[in-house]
Design a protein that fits this description.
By secondary structure, the chain is of the alpha/beta class. The chain contains 16 helices and 29 strands. A 9-stranded mixed sheet has the order 2-1-11-10-12-13-14-15-16, with helices on both faces. A 5-stranded parallel sheet has the order 4-3-5-6-7, with helices on both faces. α3 crosses α4.
Length: 537
Amino acid sequence: MATIAEERTVHALLEERARRFGARPFLYFRDKVFGYSDLDAAASRVARGFQQLGTKKGNRVAVMLSNRPEFLFTTFGLCKIGAIEVPINAAHRGYLLAYMLRQAECSAIVIEADLVPALAEVIAELPALEHVVVLDGARTTAPVAGKVVRSWASLIADDAPYHPVPVSWSDPFVVMFTSGTTGPSKGAVLPHNYAVHMAEIVSEIAGYGPSDCLYNALPLFHGNAKLLSTMPALYSGARMVLAERFSATQFWDDVRRYGATEFNYIGGILQILLKAEARSDDTDHSLRLLFGAGAAPGVYEAFERRFGVTLLEGYGMSEIGLPLLGTFAERKPGTCGKPHHDYDVKLVDDDGMEVGDGTVGELLVRPKRPWSMLLGYYNMAEKTVAAWQDLWFHTGDYLLRDGDGFFVFVDRKKDAIRRRGENISSWEVEHILAGHPAVLECAAIPVRSELGEDEVMVCVVPRPGRSLAAPELASWCEAHMARFMVPRYVRFVDCLPKTPTERVQKYRLREEGITADTWDREAAAAPAERTADARAP
């Protein structure tokens, strides 16, 4: 008889559902359909393949794939052998790609052939990486010299059973990199029960059941798609549609084609869908629920009214799950909902003293159930201790609680930028920009986007005696960082405002915002070139 510690693991949930539902459809991708048992069998092949590579419990394996079934096969397969997945944004390259693979001490990577050149550029910086598993075409060992390169087909060729290893609900199953704030991105180590707990919470709040179909167009290298769509669909016996990416023109056609009943939204998705020309059949679809965060009060009501769906919103982070949630019974536009019963939460001032209703404070969280939040930051003991000051997890976000007990997000205490669903570290943007030979120093700040959330703006001090054109700098960024990180706005300044201890006063740059001399990469009327003649700061 399995113990609760054995039952509440990611792969144990899959195996139980496969026994219960068999070939009943679980996953739709393009024109392919995979049953519950298909997913379990494919995951077992991946588990066997990695064991043949020598991968053991606790080893970290990077996954750098776009949305596709093989991503899920790998996720569940690694769980079966106690290995730890490290999902990597498929857009990363250069410094950030090397940093994440090195920081997590990855011994293997599953990667698409088109992304191998980006890996090859940094391979010399990754001595711990031994195995490279490539999808979509044969590759020679030349692009990744010194590593063992195998095709995906050869990895899963052996259908012999894998060798089960003891895995507990407290064991880690993923290292999920969060956006860096005052330093590099941190790898949040999440235990198996975190994933099962998220599946329980979301299924409970949304009322998922076997008749539901979750439409997932968010990337699987993010926690939302993996933990708030895939796991709840599996937990509730529902179906899931995996789209390659979100497409406003394809969205409603896909919803109708698959009979989707739910969709998770982020960023400006609601505004994008609202901006489409109204149609007489806007309510002719199967969706009953959209689950997400950040909808402005006006957008919230307008979307529900036009499309005839219910919006539920909450607040969460990779490290902590979903401590604040709206429910069908209690929801309020413009808020994150109320505390879930599995969490303790409070708001405190900068001295750690609790604040009352209507007063802005930092949100602190701690769990009531075991193994339902992060275990720590991988190879960052000091960051882990700092986050758990006074035995409460410090979110770094400012919220307030209104008189009805609903929590309202106010601002980020952390120095991060959120652009179209992506969390961007200003520190990492600045670190990469500092590599440009004509940049003396710079500061990255968020500015509000017309689609909601933020756009990236950089204030740049050129090196003395050097000239630098904004379009040239933007092109350089495109070659050295993920596209979603590339600044939209560039402003050249003589110097950055600083404190007496030389800390950049970013609040002053944010207050100034987009000035007359700011170059806009996306504006149709932007000058072809805006050059700053550098002067000594």
